[in-house]
Each structure stands twice: as structure tokens, then as C-alpha cells.
């Protein structure tokens, strides 16, 4: 059960410099009965404060309860149920076939796994482009599934949608630059903002997203210098992926950083682990033990 959820609009409070009415933060009760533990919940006020204090925001994708729990336990700030789900979980070649039903199911799973991290869910292709009424309804479904904010792709062209969703008191994270749902318009997954007109357009997109009421924005696949310029210009936190070190935070897809995904190795990914081989080795050892009759042993039998 979440307690003390009714907070005033965060940006308004921060801009006016008012004191936080709940300085200990909102509390999330994890567990039941005597085992219940109070956990300090990360919220959008924390993310705004982190930018103001120059503290980097750590964001990672997760699509199920187990990994959401592991990432929460090690203290990541934001978990994103990304529509990268399409490629790294569902086996599609792009994100265009991910549905609202997919996102609701995986958002619910990740929400059940995490206690403290702020949970953002991606709005899939065609869940917000047709119109603002659909966009609000679908964003609301993701909140009902357990997300605390939604993310959608687009700059000035998405401003009206961002404004409508934010007006329904649903926090929105923008996403500009290399926007995977626009793969065909971009002619592939290409770095954006390399030419002067593209650079101007991205600066304008960033301003439009903030002005429309987004609380944060992902900058994907853009030159580091441009990301630094956008980060300085905006008062909301920027989260980079392939956008250099100056962003207020960073996000990576979990399968990329864990070294599980082989099909595609973007330049911007650092593999902080190489888990594909140990996972393959463990399953190979299991298969061999089943085949030679050494598993299960007496200790595994009743
Ligand atoms: O879908 C996703 O995982 C994303 C991140 C890469 C930012 O949008």
C-alpha cells in the first residue's frame, strides 16, 4: 500500500522554492504483517532535485519482476519498461509490433518486483499517435498497471500529446533524437543532430517537450556536444543513451549492459558483464547431467 501520495505538482513547488511537505519522502510498505518494511520511494521530486544538485540519475530497463527486484536492490533510481521489449524479449526486429497488452503485462510484472525505484513505462507505437484521448487512456492503463510515469517518443510533433497526458496528472518522460518508432522515417537507426538544421530541430524539440510539461527527457543517439547543450538549456533532467557523458543521467537496455544480447552491438553500449557465456555454460552442464544420469542425485530426490 502506498501512503501519502497526494503531492502538489513538483515543478511548481521546486520553482517556487517551497519546502518539501514530506521531507522523509513517500513511504512504500513492502511485505505484510510483522515483516512489513518501510521503504523510501523515489519520485519525480527526487529526480528534479538530483539534476539541481548535479547527482547523476541511473536508469536501466527491466521487463519482469525478477530483474526489477535485482536492480531495485542495488539502488538504481529509475526502471524503464521499454518497448525495446519487442527486440530483447519478444524477438521482433524492431519496436513497432509491441502492443499495449504487452506493455501492461510487463509493466505489472516489473512493478511487482520493485519497491523503491521510480517506474516508467514506454507507450508503444500507435498507443498515442492517433489522438490525445487514446493517449490519455493508454497512459492511464500503464499507471494502473503500476508505472509512475510514461515515456513517449517525439519532439515538437508530440508536444500536444505530452501536454494532454500531463494535464491528466500523468507524469511524462519525453524521448528525442534517435527515436526507434520512427526507424523508417530516419532510414534506419542513425545518429541524429549531426547537421546544422537537424541540430536546430533537436534544440527546438527539447524546448517543446519541456514546455509541454514533460518532467524529464531521454536523449538518444545524438552528438555529445549537442546533448550537453540541451542539458544546460533545460531545467528538467536529461537521460542519455548514446548521447555522451554530460546528460543528467544514463540509461541502458539491461540485456546490452549484461552482455546477453548478441544480435546487435551498438557503439554506445558498454558491456558491464558477459553473462551470455556463463548462462549457456550452466544450461549446457544441466543438459549433460540429465543426459548422463548424474542429475537428479540422491540429495535432490525425495
Ligand atoms: O525502449 C527502450 O528501452 C528505450 C530506451 C533505450 C531509452 O526507449
Describe, in plain words, how this protein is organized in 3D.
It is a single chain. The chain has 302 residues and is α/β, with parallel strands linked by helices. It has two domains: 1-41, no CATH class; 44-281, Phosphoenolpyruvate-binding domains (TIM Barrel, Alpha-Beta Barrel), CATH 3.20.20. It contains twelve helices and ten strands. The strands form two sheets. An eight-stranded parallel β-barrel has the order 3-4-5-6-7-8-9-10, surrounded by seven helices. It has a two-stranded antiparallel sheet with strand order 1-2. The longest helix has 16 residues, at 196-211. Residues 1-19 have low confidence and may be disordered. The structure holds 3-methyl-2-oxobutanoic acid. 3-methyl-2-oxobutanoic acid (KIV) binds at residues 61, 80, 82-84, 122, 218, 220, 241, 251, 253.
Topology of this protein?
Elements: H1 10-16, E1 27-30, E2 37-40, H2 44-53, E3 57-61, H3 65-73, E4 78-81, H4 85-88, H5 100-113, E5 118-122, H6 132-145, E6 149-151, H7 159-167, E7 172-177, H8 183-186, H9 196-211, E8 216-220, H10 224-233, E9 238-241, E10 249-252, H11 254-257, H12 276-291
Parallel strand pairs: 3-4, 3-10, 4-5, 5-6, 6-7, 7-8, 8-9, 9-10
Antiparallel strand pairs: 1-2
The structure holds 3-methyl-2-oxobutanoic acid (KIV).
Amino acid at each position: 500500500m502506498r501512503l501519502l501520495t497526494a503531492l502538489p505538482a513538483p515543478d511548481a513547488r521546486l520553482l517556487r522554492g517551497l519546502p518539501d511537505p514530506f521531507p522523509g519522502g513517500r513511504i512504500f510498505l513492502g511485505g505484510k504483517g510483522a515483516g512489513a518494511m518501510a521503504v523510501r520511494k523515489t519520485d519525480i521530486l527526487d529526480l528534479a532535485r538530483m539534476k539541481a544538485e548535479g547527482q547523476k540519475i541511473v536508469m536501466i530497463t527491466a521487463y519482469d519482476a525478477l530483474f526489477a527486484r535485482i536492480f531495485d536492490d542495488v539502488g538504481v533510481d529509475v526502471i524503464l519498461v521499454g518497448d525495446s521489449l519487442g527486440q530483447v524479449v519478444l524477438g521482433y526486429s524492431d519496436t513497432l509490433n509491441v502492443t499495449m497488452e504487452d506493455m501492461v503485462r510487463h509493466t505489472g510484472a516489473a512493478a511487482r518486483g520493485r519497491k523503491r525505484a521510480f517506474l516508467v513505462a514506454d507507450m508503444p507505437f500507435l498507443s498515442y499517435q492517433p489522438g490525445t484521448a487514446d493517449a490519455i487512456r493508454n497512459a492511464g492503463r500503464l499507471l494502473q498497471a503500476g508505472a509512475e510515469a510514461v515515456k513517449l517518443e517525439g519532439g515538437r510533433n508530440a508536444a500536444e500529446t505530452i501536454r494532454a497526458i500531463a494535464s491528466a496528472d500523468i507524469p511524462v518522460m519525453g524521448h528525442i533524437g534517435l527515436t526507434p518508432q520512427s526507424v523508417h522515417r530516419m532510414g534506419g537507426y542513425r545518429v541524429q543532430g549531426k547537421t546544422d538544421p537537424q541540430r536546430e530541430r533537436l534544440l527546438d524539440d527539447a524546448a517543446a517537450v519541456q514546455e509541454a510539461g514533460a518532467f524529464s527527457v531521454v536523449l538518444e543517439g545524438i552528438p555529445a556536444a549537442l546533448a550537453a547543450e540541451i542539458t544546460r538549456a533545460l531545467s528538467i533532467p536529461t537521460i542519455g543513451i548514446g548521447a555522451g557523458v554530460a546528460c543528467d543521467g544514463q540509461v541502458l537496455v539491461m540485456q546490452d549492459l549484461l552482455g546477453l544480447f548478441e544480435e546487435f552491438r551498438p557503439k554506445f553500449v558498454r558491456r558491464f558483464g558477459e553473462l551470455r557465456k556463463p548462462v549457456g555454460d550452466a544450461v549446457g552442464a544441466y543438459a549433460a547431467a540429465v543426459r548422463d544420469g548424474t542429475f537428479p542425485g540422491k540429495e535432490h530426490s525425495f
